[in-house]
C-alpha cells in the first residue's frame, strides 16, 4: 500500500482546509483524459503550429532578450533537497595547450569542460513528472509507474523538446501594482491583479489559448540589490491558489515567473506546501518555469508598450528528466 493511499490526519502537517481545497479545485481543472489516455504533453497541446506562426508575427524590431539567470557557483541554492549551485570544472585548458604534453599534431590545441548541477538549479522548467498528488501523476497515472530510479519513463522533459516556441506574453504585475516595480514578499497575486495588469498594459498583453505567460513580480530585482537571502525557498510574491481556475480557463500552454516557486510563499494554507503546484502540474498538466530573468524584457516592454513577442524556450532534452535548465529567448 502506498503511503498516500491513506491520509494521516494526525500529522502536524495536515490541514483539512487545504486538503479539501486542493481536491475540489483539482477536480474542476483536471485535464486527465482530455487528449487521450496516452497523452504526455498536457497543456503543451494548446501550443500548435498556428500559435507559433502568431508568435513569429510579433517580431518587429529583431531585438532579443535572454531570460536566463547565470549558471555558476554564485547562484541562490542553499541545499534544500540536495539542490546545489552549478559546479563548473575544466577538463583541458589553455594551460595544457601552452605547457602540457604534446598529444595532438601540428600544434592543435583546445579546451573542454563539464558542469555538475541539479537540473533545477537556476532558470528552469518543471516537467509533468515533477509533482504528484497523493501518489498520482499527470493523466491519472501512478507516480511510481511514471518516475522510477531511472527517471521519468513517460513524461520526461524530452517529450517537449521541440514544442516550446510561440507567443509569449509578459504580465508585469510588479511594475503595475508594486512599489518601485516590486511586489513585497508574501504578496498573493490574484485573478483581479492579473486582470488589472492586462488592462493597464493594453491589448498586447491579452492572454489566451496556447500562450506562454510570463509574470514579473520584481523579486529578482530586489535580491540582486540586497543579496540572495532566502530566494531559493523562502518568502516570495507569487500566484495565489485562487488563480488555478483562471489559468485553466485561459488554456495557456505554460507559465513562468521570476521567483523560485511560482506561487506565493508563505503558501496560503497553514501546513500546506506548494498547493498550486499540487493542482496545476499533476491535474492540469501545466508546465511551470521558475527563476526566469524578466528584468530587461520588462523594461523594454514598459518603454515601447508592447508586451507580446516570440518566445523560444526549449528545454535541454535530458532523457527522463523531470525538469530542465533553459535559456529562454524573447524576440520583439
Overview in brief:
The chain folds into two domains: 16-79 and 119-331, Putative cyclase (Glucose Oxidase, domain 1, 3-Layer(bba) Sandwich), CATH 3.50.30.50; 85-116, no CATH class. It contains ten helices and 15 strands. It has helices at 16-29, 49-56, 94-99, 143-146, 173-177, 191-201, 219-226, 244-250, 275-284, 295-304, and strands at residues 64-66, 87-92, 112-116, 124-126, 147-148, 151-152, 165-171, 188-189, 212-215, 238-239, 254-257, 287-290, 308-312, 323-325, 329-331.
Structural description of this entry:
With 332 residues, the protein is α/β, with parallel strands linked by helices. It folds into 2 domains: 16-79 and 119-331, Putative cyclase (Glucose Oxidase, domain 1); 85-116, no CATH class. The chain has 10 helices and 15 strands. A 9-stranded mixed beta sheet has the order 1-15-13-7-9-11-12-4-14. β5 (147-148) and β6 (151-152) form a beta hairpin. α1 runs parallel beside α9 (275-284). It is globular and about 70 Å long. The N and C termini lie far apart (52 Å). The mean pLDDT is 95.
Unreliable spans are: none
- Helical content band: 25-40%
Strand order of the largest sheet: 1-15-13-7-9-11-12-4-14
Mean pLDDT: 95
Main beta sheet: strand number and arrangement?
9 strands, mixed
Label the CATH architecture of the largest domain: 3-Layer(bba) Sandwich
Query: For the terminal residues, how far apart are their CA atoms?
Result: 52 Å
Taken from the alpha-carbon principal axes, the silhouette is globular
Please name the fourth-level CATH homologous superfamily of the largest domain.
Answer: Putative cyclase
Give the number of domains: 2
Structure class: alpha/beta
Q: What value does the Rg take, in angstroms?
A: 21 Å
Taken in chain order, the helices and strands follow as HHEEHEEHEEEHEHEHEHEHEHEEE
- Percent of residues in β-strands: 15-25%
Give the C-level CATH assignment of the largest domain: Alpha Beta
Number of strands: 15
Quickly count the helices: 10
CATH-assigned fold name of the largest domain: Glucose Oxidase, domain 1
Amino acid at each position: 500500500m502506498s503511503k498516500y493511499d491513506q491520509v494521516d490526519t494526525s500529522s502536524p502537517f495536515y490541514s483539512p482546509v487545504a486538503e479539501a481545497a486542493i481536491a475540489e479545485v483539482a477536480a474542476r481543472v483536471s485535464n486527465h483524459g482530455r487528449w487521450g489516455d496516452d497523452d504526455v504533453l498536457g497543456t503543451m497541446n494548446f501550443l500548435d503550429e498556428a500559435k507559433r506562426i502568431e508568435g513569429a508575427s510579433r517580431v518587429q524590431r529583431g531585438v532579443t532578450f535572454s531570460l536566463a539567470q547565470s549558471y555558476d557557483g554564485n547562484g541562490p541554492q542553499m541545499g534544500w533537497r540536495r539542490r546545489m549551485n552549478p559546479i563548473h570544472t575544466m577538463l583541458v585548458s589553455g594551460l595544457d595547450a601552452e605547457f602540457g604534453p604534446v598529444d595532438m599534431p601540428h600544434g592543435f590545441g583546445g579546451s573542454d569542460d563539464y558542469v555538475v548541477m541539479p537540473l533545477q538549479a537556476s532558470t528552469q522548467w518543471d516537467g509533468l513528472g515533477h509533482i504528484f498528488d497523493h501518489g498520482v501523476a499527470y493523466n491519472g497515472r501512478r507516480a511510481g509507474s511514471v518516475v522510477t530510479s531511472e527517471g521519468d519513463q513517460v513524461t520526461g522533459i524530452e517529450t517537449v523538446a521541440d514544442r516550446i516556441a510561440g507567443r509569449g506574453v509578459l504580465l508585469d504585475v510588479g511594475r503595475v501594482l508594486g512599489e518601485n516595480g516590486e511586489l513585497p514578499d508574501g504578496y498573493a497575486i490574484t485573478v483581479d491583479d492579473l486582470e488589472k495588469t492586462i488592462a493597464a498594459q493594453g491589448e498586447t498583453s491579452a492572454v489566451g489559448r496556447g500562450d506562454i505567460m510570463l509574470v514579473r513580480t520584481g523579486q529578482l530585482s530586489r535580491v540582486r540589490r540586497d543579496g540572495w537571502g532566502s530566494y531559493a525557498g523562502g518568502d516570495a510574491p507569487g500566484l495565489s491558489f485562487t488563480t488555478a481556475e483562471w489559468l485553466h480557463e485561459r488554456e495557456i500552454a505554460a507559465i513562468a515567473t521570476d521567483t523560485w516557486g511560482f506561487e506565493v510563499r508563505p503558501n496560503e494554507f497553514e501546513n500546506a506546501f506548494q498547493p498550486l503546484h499540487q493542482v496545476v502540474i499533476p491535474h492540469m498538466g501545466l508546465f511551470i518555469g521558475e527563476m526566469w530573468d524578466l528584468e530587461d524584457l520588462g523594461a523594454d516592454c514598459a518603454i515601447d508598450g508592447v508586451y507580446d513577442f516570440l518566445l523560444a524556450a526549449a528545454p535541454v532534452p535530458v532523457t527522463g528528466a523531470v525538469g530542465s535548465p533553459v535559456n529562454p529567448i524573447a524576440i520583439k
